[in-house]
Write a structure and sequence with these properties.
alpha/beta; Rossmann fold; 4-stranded parallel β-sheet; 9% strand; globular; TrpB-like_PALP
Length: 247
Amino acid sequence: MMMAKIQAAGATSVLQHGASWQEADDYLRNSIIKDAAEEGVECIYVPPFDHPQIWSGHSSLVDEVAVQLSELTGEENAVPEVLACSVGGGGLFNGVMEGLSRHSWKSTRVLAVETKGTDSLAESVRQKSHITLPAITSQATCLGAKKVSTKTFELAMSSEQVQTLVLSDEEAMMGTWRLAEEERLLVELACGVTVALCYGNRLKKALQREVSKDDKVVIIVCGGSNVTIDMVSQYKKDSAHIDAESG
């Protein structure tokens, strides 16, 4: 499905390899680029998350949040109590932290959310070491970086604002189908895992406090294209046992 979408966007040569982003990236770096270099072909590697320009682009999300919060609350400098985003390699997270710094939102709690099996950041923080996961075992393959960027690890370890959080694939499925039914938005599991915080008191449990109606909570809906209506329908069946009551 994704190959067809990429080709429709104008790509002339699309290769598919591996069961996750990490496997595809390893193959690209260690085989395709290496072989091309040996033949004298100069290749340009475009990183999906590990570059300052990418972080800077993502940081503009915080600028938009600042404007929208002021419009919604009537406060000139409205600051969110909580901001949650999914973490794969860490590009979005790095941008969020850059944006928070620019706006001096030092009191905002940042929830860095991963699925079990893609939780390279949470494991790195737990072990206090920039580790590499042995394998990607989650269905949220878009989050499948076995090792987050160095910048991501440094930010998570040095900032008291950051809290890592790991949810199951089934919880990600629940967040995905709930968003589809309630907001008419189709997103990947990589996004649905963060949306899941809105249900079943998960946000309350993560923060270890009550969430009041006056709390300003921002959930970054990062989207994703590798999803269909049939997939979401199956997610609903597979996560039927998951508590999805609004918390």
